[in-house]
Write a structure and sequence with these properties.
Elements lengths: L6 H32 L3 H10 L3 H4 L1 H9 L3 H25 L4 H29 L5 H30 L1 H20 L16 H14 L1 H31 L4 H29 L1 H15 L10 H31 L5 H12 L2 H15 L2 H14 L1 H5 L24
Helix pairs in contact: 1-2, 1-6, 1-7, 1-8, 1-10, 2-6, 2-15, 4-6, 4-9, 4-14, 5-6, 5-8, 6-14, 7-8, 7-11, 7-13, 9-14, 10-14, 10-15, 10-16, 11-12, 11-13, 12-13, 12-16, 15-16
Organism: Micromonospora maris
Subcellular location: Cell membrane
Pfam families: MFS_3
């Protein structure tokens, strides 16, 4: 049976889609609020982008252990309610004439914590909801809506900013998060409270997750590769908004459209990923997707206020194509290799490394943008993303053509003497 007929998956898919629209709008919309309404500099915009993802770096590891101890569904509901209420303050603060950059930083930090909790919970919830053989399809569908959000979020956000002003446009995102919480609340499946292991201390459970990932050759390669790629992507993403909106004087609607073209590439990746995975195998598909994304990223620094804007947009689309191909297979491999009782900690450890690189990349992008120039910083980001293919290429993933198994000796954690 296709997952389109799976009641609970449809609701989770809907909730994740609304959340992704909010995430991708916020990552463009909040910097536009800062730049257009509060006259933020490149460094200040970079600092705002840092706060939007910094929770993965600051509390990512304890969040994974905490999620493993609790039912995932209530966590997802609370996370989306929190994100919606925080973002609702932006138009209220603007209406009252008291909105400041400091308040935007606080809102971004709070939304970052909500995103961390929702993302950690839902990727651990999915293997409970689906059969093992449904995970690739499920992850492909979730990644396809992530790509739709990459198209619709920035495009809709850019035009809403242009039509209604930056603060009021954020109100639509707040509503989306509240609707997402409602969708999760209607999921019928009720999971049992996870059984606590022998190690009941939070620090011990965090250590278990770290040890499992770093001793596992495949999971370690996926984590390092993802961290390097995100470091480069967030250096690029932070600076390119400033380049387009400030230096090249591109309208907010066109800025949103430029990012939307990248999302279209992600849709292509979601459409072809299952066929590529069947043809090449899940392991080779991971590094091929990363290679496509890294090479295509070398076109983005060429962006200018002429035809090269759209050439860079096409390169950004190919980055999204390769990234979705990589992500779908990476997620399925992780979910199949890891025991269920370690899913939250494994996912949190990898996300600590992969998503923790995001605020570092955003801060680095804002800093370098003012120190060496915007376009030069784009080249730094592009090179970092290209290097990310090396850890997955020089790992067992290169020859992993069958479905991964936790007992596969190639995939098993290395022994420590």
């Amino acid at each position: 049976m296709t997952l389109l007929g799976h009641h609970d998956f449809r609701l989770l898919w809907t909730a994740q889609t609304l959340g992704q629209f909010g995430t991708h709008f916020s990552r463009v919309g909040l910097p536009l609020v800062a730049i257009l309404a509060l006259d933020a500099t490149a460094f200040e915009a970079g600092l705002l982008a840092t706060f939007q993802t910094v929770a993965f770096l600051l509390v990512g590891l304890p969040a994974g252990a905490w999620v493993d101890r609790r039912r995932k569904r209530p966590i997802m509901i609370a996370a989306n309610l929190g994100r919606g209420l925080l973002l609702a303050w932006v138009p209220v603060g603007a209406y009252l004439g008291v909105l400041t950059l400091t308040q935007l930083y606080i809102v971004a930090l709070g939304v970052s914590v909500g995103t961390l909790l929702f993302e950690t919970a839902y990727v651990s919830y999915l293997p409970l909801m689906l059969e093992r053989g449904q995970l690739v399809e499920g992850n492909a569908k979730l990644e396809s809506t992530r790509s739709v959000a990459q198209v619709g979020g920035p495009t809709l956000g850019g035009y809403l900013v242009q039509w209604f002003g930056p603060p009021l446009a954020v109100l639509t995102v707040a509503g989306g998060y509240l609707a997402s919480a409602l969708a999760v609340s209607r999921i019928r499946m009720r999971e049992a409270l996870p059984v606590r292991g022998a190690s009941s201390h939070l620090v011990g459970e965090i250590r278990q997750g770290l040890s499992y990932v770093f001793r596992h050759r495949v999971l370690r390669a996926l984590a390092v590769s993802g961290a390097l790629f995100n470091l480069g992507v967030y250096v690029t993403g932070t600076v390119v908004v400033v380049l387009l909106a400030q230096q090249l004087r591109i309208s907010p609607g066109t800025v949103g459209l430029w990012f939307a073209i990248g999302g279209l590439g992600g849709l292509v990746g979601a459409f072809v990923v299952q066929r590529i995975s069947v043809r090449l195998g899940p392991g080779p598909t991971v590094w091929v997707g990363m290679a496509v994304a890294g090479v295509a990223g070398l076109v983005v620094p060429l962006a200018d206020a002429d035809w090269r804007l759209w050439l860079a947009g096409a390169g950004n689309a190919l980055v999204s194509t390769g990234l979705v191909i990589n992500n779908v297979n990476s997620m399925a491999i992780r979910q199949q290799l890891c025991p269920q009782e370690l899913q939250g900690r494994m996912n949190a450890t990898i996300r600590f490394l992969v998503f923790g690189a995001m605020p570092i990349g955003s801060f680095l992008g804002g800093f370098l943008g003012e120190q060496i120039g915007l376009r030069e910083t784009l080249w730094v980001g592009a090179v970092l993303s290209l290097v990310a293919v090396l850890p997955v290429y020089f790992s067992p993933l290169r020859t992993m053509r069958g479905q991964p198994d936790a007992d596969d000796q190639k995939a098993a954690p290395e022994k420590v003497g």
